């Protein structure tokens, strides 16, 4: 088998696999000599990343702006669209429905969980984008700098191959693998979040209500997307990322609509951004007052007021985060198997499911008195 492998040209995936196998056998060290220019560049990248990592809105905007400059970096747009959903989840905690179902203490903890993950991903991935941008400027790969930015050795290999091969799919899915693996020990397996968020009933309540939708708005009021039920599984999160990639990038007409929608609707964190007929960032009623059911088949009943969905700016203050935990997640070269492309086309129809979710959530909020035993 090895003889035949040696006597034919290896595929890109085989070359990546072989390189990662070698990295698994040796302990990677930082050995590249840094010039004064390198050190200044690293400092500039750290400062630039910090400036843009203020909150979900600044991160989400930065992803889109980078993608519009460098559409070959597909993760930047995937990251933008997923980050929008992170913002919606954050503002939901101060919105009309979840604020009736969760205590203030639990909502604060859940926000802390969402914000930490959002912040961690940006501070890991955005420096990679800036190193790539500088590499283009200098017409040479500078990815040896990634290890000084605490980026996984896995991604150093991927960027170097991308520089030569320009395989967008492999590059984007590799970033999905990287970011989800990066989050695993720092957030998902973090004992504080395990106790305060992942094991709390409210987290399962969201799952039971299928409130883990990732929505891709396009056109006026149209949605595509997917639903994640097992957030605690890194395998499920990576597979979700692959499905989201398929929805977003395999249909060029849809991609064009999604990009145009994103450009025309600056992210605020309010669900009004995509469904102003259902949501408003201004509270139209009296907080705490009981109300009849308002939703039916994704339309408001006659005379019903819209649901309050605040902007991120009005919902949460900026949070100063502690430094990211050190360490490289890459331990097993077999993660490369995720890079094998699936031929499956995914429709991404989610509107009906999402409508039913909202209706169930509204019923749960109205029936709050019947589930007081949760408190």
**How many β-strand runs?**
6
Low-confidence stretches: 369-375
Radius of gyration from the alpha-carbon trace, in angstroms: 22 Å
Beta content comes to 5-15%
Largest sheet: 2 strands, antiparallel
If strands are numbered along the chain, what order do they take across the biggest sheet?
1-2
Please report the distance between the alpha carbons of the first and last residues: 62 Å
Describe the global form.
Answer: globular
What is the chain-wise order of helices and strands?
A: HHHHHHHHHHHEEHHEEEEHH
Tell me the structural class: mainly alpha
The pLDDT mean sits at: 89
Helix tally equals 15
Helix proportion of residues, in percent?
55-70%
Compact summary:
By secondary structure, the chain is mainly alpha-helical. Helices cover 55% and strands 5% of the residues. The chain has 15 helices and six strands.
